[in-house]
Amino acid sequence: MLNFKTEIADCLKRAAAECFPGCDISDCDIVSMMEYPPDGTMGDVAFPCFKLSRVFRKSPAVIADTLARYDFGPDVKEVASVSGYLNFKMSDSYLTERVLRSVLSGGDRYGSNDIGKGKTAVFDYSSPNVAKPFHIGHLGTTVIGHSLRLLHEFSGYKCVGINHLGDWGTQFGKLIVAYKRWGVRDEIENGGVDALVALYVKFHAEAEKDLSLNDEARAAFKKLEEKDAESTELWRWFVDISLREYKTTYDMLGIEFDSYSGESFYVDKLAPLIQKMRDDGLLKLDDGASIIDLEKYGMPPFLILKRDGSTLYPTRDIAAAVYRKETYDFDKCVYVTSAGQSLHFAQLFKVLELMGYDWTDKLVHVPYGTVSIDGAKLATRTGNVVLLRDLFRMAIDKVRVIMDEKNPDLENRDETAEAVGVGAIVFHYLYNGRIKDINFNMDSALSFEGNTGPYAQYTYARTCSVLSKAGGSICKNESVTVTCEDERELLKTLSLFPEKVVGALNDYEPSVITRYIIDVCSAFNRFYHNCQIITAESDGVRKSRLALTLAAKTVIGNALRLICLRTPEKI
Description:
This protein has helices at 2-19, 30-33, 53-56, 60-68, 92-106, 139-154, 170-182, 185-209, 212-225, 229-253, 271-279, 313-328, 342-354, 388-406, 413-430, 442-445, 453-470, 485-495, 497-507, 511-530, 539-562, and strands at residues 45-48, 76-82, 85-90, 120-124, 158-162, 283-286, 289-292, 302-305, 332-338, 363-368, 371-373, 376-377, 438-440. The protein is of the alpha/beta class.
């Protein structure tokens, strides 16, 4: 569709030059002015002539009537002037010779582009806190971040995925003290993160009775900062235990990172940056703490050093940004976190700018909304936290029950149940705009009907089933004929994929792809129910419809992979 818009825009510029001599619209971004008619019967693309009235000094209706008489070439089936709009309809030959052939020849690269060719994009996402469980609150940063990485890779960028682990701070002093007092190594090894959390909870309970434990914890963390061998070994063990669990979740999502460098990695890189801030006159003392005053920029102060001279995560974020620029020379560095951290990143970017770095315009914060379960907000203190592993397990078990009813003889039953169960949760999360708050409902997410992941994956499996039953290979250069409106609508929808990819990329919005998947699935299922495919009335129609089915499979598969979903061929 993006190509069709571009062709129409070029034609419109030529038409304007011929029909309205002296009126130059060569510099106008005609493509961005185009719209999609609310009713497909009106046309495939519409151009509002209101936007040219000042240039042509004529009414929109006169402009539209005049331009409608221009010959727009064989790719345009018809042009209609309607109330100041020019409505264009694609020719059948454009849909079959251009769109369909483009999908079939492009294969798993159809929809991709080279916007990012020669550029590097760094993504900071997921980033759980070590020694704490991976809960549904981490789902947003993880799947939004990875989907954005996939979209950028699909658009030609060299991408670097960084899991900026929360692996430093006084909480590790508490954990070291708790382990030394009450921990048993085998129990921690077998219990994993849950056992570490239990130790942490016990520390706080005991510290309420014995306040000296907090001093002991601060001393323990100081020893860790000083690279004490025993403390460092324990800390690394806590990190390893946590990563084992996190990687189990990442494997289910098909996610890999290029770096797990967390906050601790930047500790020894802070001193020269802090000195630079001092030398530049940016640091001010406030009640013993060192801050950067951002009042003139409408923001509260940015805390760099605590009163005791220790650093905080904002200081380490400064070091991380500088290190990433020096290491990867990124063209953009994208941080995917909750909207609650928007102020922090606004402050961070401003501080880096005040430090004289000329690449701060390449830093991007991508915020997302909160998540609740059946309307109840998550709250750690009340215990209302759903662990992601438990959520996945529940979803997989429910899908397995549904599959036993629908297809009890299915091969690879466990693998498929995992693909659909995990996919259902991810799809449900990514369906709405990222900045919106999400209310997670398991029954809705797992439905095989409606705007859900199982519906999308089932439709993909249906395309695979049709092609498998048909047998043989499909000639990608086969002459194809459009015989009905359902075929035409499917081709029109498939043509939109490259445009949707660019839109999702520009807006950092995976929901553009998620919602588009539903559009393709709906168009294919109408085609599937209304048109005979394998038993079509003629061999030519059969071959055409099989080619259409392969095209739908290609686009649904490409789109699903962009939002972290697997593509099982049987469900």
